[in-house]
Automatic annotation (TrEMBL):
InterPro entries: RNaseH-like_sf (IPR012337). This is DUF659 domain-containing protein. It comes from the Eukaryota. It comes from Scleroderma citrinum Foug A. The lineage of its organism: Eukaryota, Fungi, Dikarya, Basidiomycota, Agaricomycotina.
Length: 265
């Protein structure tokens, strides 16, 4: 049998492995898995899911909080929150914020001096209630949320800017979705830049995603255009054999080789 220190370290690492990989706690109680671990890690004391997700996890939480507290104790802090509803779909954000507020001050020993929310109805109501209870707080609207609302309004306009952004997204999506075409582009990137540059596909829930996506496309523009010139015939068949797929590939190549497209970006 293992020494207590070794056993505790093994269970600690096992807990972290489950957390990091997103494995459900009850997996550890699977008969075949426990047989495998007993066979290949003899002497190891394998906890069941109740112990792994109970005392072992609690011990890890306590360790992380204690370590974090070394960096937060005695410091000022800003809280932030978004909408929160209970099972009845009723907003409970105010009561949850009070709990989080007290928890942060007690566990992390910080002094919360400000709170940041978006400007939606439930958050605004929470902000008013919070200021009534704690009038000393600095209350702020989330700047990123405000900017996102402005950008959302811009995206509703019928403008050349939006057409360019749509074309940019389509070029990135097409290359990322066709492994052979992406391989040809990466080969050209290595020849041009001596490194591979990723094409980032924008996701609406990520701040500044369209800006960063367009910036990445500009950084590899030389390799992209060179690839479309050198390997045009190969790229035209990368999308598939059907006429519609070939036409789509041709449209992407045409966009990449259009100087006005890059000027608009």
């Amino acid at each position: 049998p293992w020494a207590k220190e070794t056993k505790d370290e093994f269970q600690h690492d096992l807990c972290l492995a489950f957390i990091s990989s997103g494995i459900a706690w009850n997996v550890i109680s699977d008969v075949q898995l426990r047989h495998f671990l007993a066979k290949w890690i003899p002497g190891a004391e394998i906890p069941d899911h109740r112990k792994l997700a109970g005392p072992i996890l609690d011990k890890e939480v306590t360790r992380v909080i204690s370590k974090t507290r070394l960096h937060t104790a005695g410091r000022f802090a800003t809280g932030q929150s978004d909408g929160w509803k209970n099972i009845a779909k009723a907003s409970v954000v105010t009561s949850m914020i009070i709990v989080d507020f007290e928890y942060a001050e007690q566990e992390y020993q910080v002094m919360i001096i400000a709170w940041c929310t978006d400007a939606a109805g439930d958050a605004k109501k929470m902000w008013k209630d919070l200021i009534k209870q704690m009038p000393w707080l600095i209350s702020l609207d989330c700047s990123a949320h405000q900017i996102n609302l402005v950008v959302g309004d811009l995206f509703k306009l019928k403008s050349g800017y939006l057409t360019t952004i749509d074309k940019t997204t389509e070029v990135i999506k097409w290359f990322n979705n066709h492994s052979r075409a992406l391989g040809l582009l990466r080969k050209e990137q290595l020849a041009t830049y001596h490194k591979i540059l990723a094409l980032i596909q924008p996701v609406i829930t990520r701040w500044t995603c369209h800006f960063l996506s367009t910036q990445c496309l500009l950084e590899t523009s030389s390799a992209l255009r060179s690839c479309c010139i050198k390997d045009k015939k190969l790229l035209e068949i990368c999308g598939g054999d059907r006429q519609q797929e070939k036409a789509r590939a041709h449209e992407i190549i045409k966009t990449v080789l259009d100087q006005n497209f890059w000027s608009d970006i």
